Amino acid sequence: MSLVLVASKTCPHCIRVVLTLNHLKIPYELKYIDIENRPDWFIKASPLERVPILFVGDAVLFESLVILDYINTLTPQSLLPKDNLQIALNRARAEFSQEIIEILWSVFSAKTLEAFDLQMKELRWLFSSLETWLQQTKFISDNVLTLADFAYAPIFTIIPALKQVMNFDIFDGFPRLRAYVDNLHAIPELKMSLVENYDQLIQKKIQSREPYFWKQ
């Protein structure tokens, strides 16, 4: 059955699906759209009018973590643990990544010092949970990659794209998380899952919001 993924170029929810498909070597077609100028066919197909969506034949899947779960069933090389409790924990921690995405964008969009400090405090609170989960393992649930890690990997591609304009260390005080991010960046398929001008697109997107940190 044919797979067609509809995505936008800088969306971390989309990149996590691209990355997982590439890692599992599952054939698919990729269509990029401008999310600010969504075509009519996409609006009709996407129940929430958001990317990503995955056409599986005539069926349409939406919500990136649901899509990851489906992709994982298409290959014997499962990215989930074998124990049912560990599967549930893996999925819960993957869901937690949604909070990281939301607060990270808020940090990079904050227009005042007060707003920036508030969002950084929230982000560090979330990072503390990741730091705890990584106390005994290389990755989120184990010493091997699992589906949760593919949920997190694209989030942290935003930070190196902004390193030239960031005057703060976002991982300060989180050594295990810093090492984890390095491990994620070492996934061979991650770079190939980003568009060629990804860094420039991220910079343009963030700068257009006129955030506080960019002015410092």
UniProtKB/TrEMBL annotation:
Residues 1-79 form the GST N-terminal domain. Pfam families: GST_C, GST_N_2. PROSITE patterns: GST_CTER, GST_NTER. GO terms for cellular component: cytoplasm. Residues 83-212 form the GST C-terminal domain. Gene3D superfamilies: 1.20.1050.10, Glutaredoxin. This is Glutathione S-transferase. It comes from Paramecium tetraurelia.
